[in-house]
Amino acid sequence: MRRDSIFYKLFQQSPSLVFELLTNPPINAESYRFDSVAIKEPKFEIDGVFLPPENEGAGVVYFCEVQFQKDEQLYERVFAESSLYFYRNRARFSDWQAVIIYPSRSIEQTDIHPHRGFLNSNQVHRVYLDELGDIRQLPIWVALMVLTTVEEQLAPQEARYLLERSSVEQPETANSAIIELVTTIMVYKFEQLSRKEVEQMLGITLKETRVYREIKEEGREEGREAEARSLIGRQLTKRVGELPSQVRERIETLSLEQLENLGEALLDFTSMADLQAWLSAE
């Protein structure tokens, strides 16, 4: 199960999510932005970095690591990456903290003695998802994190519960994002099932999402393919960035049925490469 990409999407949708896991979050948590960075010489990849707002002076940078497999040198790597990044950006930050998210304590590195100074301080926060409590009592975005750890026999009913809860609690834009994330989590959890079979399990369809509804509604109102094509173009630009002229020309050749299929497919796009692969397959 590719949990890294799931958590990346969660943090993109809700940058303050990681602070809901902390006892003493920063007072300006809602102003932080999520990013991933690379450090060269030697090259380190830091998956999750939460950057304080630049207009408030030097603030605290938070590093986040999601670890679902045993790694006996995890802390060596995390502290080396974090310290080096902090060193190279010292003028931007007043302090650093690290958050390590595990599914359970059994996944944690065995020999932690060399790192006792960090681990016993308030600078490093270890979060064990199976100890956060009843998934139905957690904030909705934290519950989505816990859903990745729920056993297969319980996952469908908990996923359906979260979808029902989201439809009541969340604004339409956030609800659409949660539908996509829940579906993605379940697709990864039930790898033997197709996406359509997972949607049937959850009692949903991508046609319920805002993007698809907008395309269909605008198409009905205007009665012209051009309007649907224009909306698809806007949604693609939001998803993958400005479209090259050759890509726009290719989209102009798509039929209404193909546009509707693209309207569903684009919900999973994260890069221009995804769009180009879809167009090549048509």
TrEMBL record:
PANTHER family: SLL1542 PROTEIN, SLL1691 PROTEIN. This is Rpn family recombination-promoting nuclease/putative transposase. Residues 221-279 form the DUF4351 domain. Pfam families: DUF2887, DUF4351. It comes from Nostoc paludosum FACHB-159. Coiled coil: none annotated. InterPro entries: DUF2887, DUF4351, RpnA.
